[in-house]
Design goal:
Oligomer: single chain
CATH architecture: 2-Layer Sandwich
CATH topology: Beta-Lactamase
Radius of gyration: 23 Å
Helix content: 40-55%
Number of domains: 1
Mean pLDDT: 81
Low-confidence stretches: 3-24
CATH class: Alpha Beta
Largest sheet: 4 strands, antiparallel
Number of helices: 6
Distance between the termini: 73 Å
Number of strands: 4
Strand order of the largest sheet: 2-1-4-3
Shape: globular
């Protein structure tokens, strides 16, 4: 009987080892890799993105705060439209910094809090889980990000996308 027990243990060990060597099943839709960092956006391009965002907000009758940060999440340019709420100043900057630092739109964090457990997202330093922060990508590299605040998260994002469209490769 001990030989049978030893043989059973060996077979179980073999089955476990074979199972351990099996590659895990990849996710059906793995998240895209974030873009690599590029040279930081310059002031002229940042102001151009802000001008396009402000034009979109004016066209729609929204008042916004618009911030552009470089690839290191440092503020490059900022505009507060007449009548835009004061609390949205820091929110616009925060959205831009989050989009640059994490190299993804802030909508991703908003959706993560809405569609699943939010504790991992809300515990990250520097995250704002509200749409309206959009990375600025040129030639496949992150050169900065734009953040807008003053309306709903959808209005903020729409305004940002107009600004981001001025940068080659974004919104095209």
């Amino acid at each position: 009987m001990p030989k049978l027990a030893i043989l059973a243990a060996i077979l179980i060990a073999f089955a476990g080892a074979a199972g351990a060597q099996t590659a895990p099943t990849p996710a059906a839709n793995p998240p895209p890799s974030p873009p690599p960092y590029g040279a930081p956006i310059d002031l002229a391009r940042a102001e151009s993105a802000i001008a396009a965002a402000v034009a979109e907000a004016v066209k729609r009758g929204w008042t916004m705060n618009v911030a552009v940060v470089d690839s290191g999440a440092n503020l490059v340019a900022f505009v507060r439209m007449d009548g835009a709420q004061l609390a949205s100043i820091v929110i616009a900057e925060h959205k831009a910094r989050t989009a640059a630092a994490f190299r993804r739109p802030t909508r991703a964090f908003e959706e993560a809090t809405r569609n699943g457990p939010s504790a991992p997202v809300t515990s990250l330093d520097g995250v704002i889980a509200s749409a309206g922060g959009v990375p600025l990508i040129e030639d496949g590299k992150l050169i900065g990000a734009i953040g807008c605040s003053g309306g709903t998260s959808t209005e903020d994002e729409t305004t940002c996308l107009a600004g981001a469209a001025t940068i080659n490769g974004v919104g095209k």
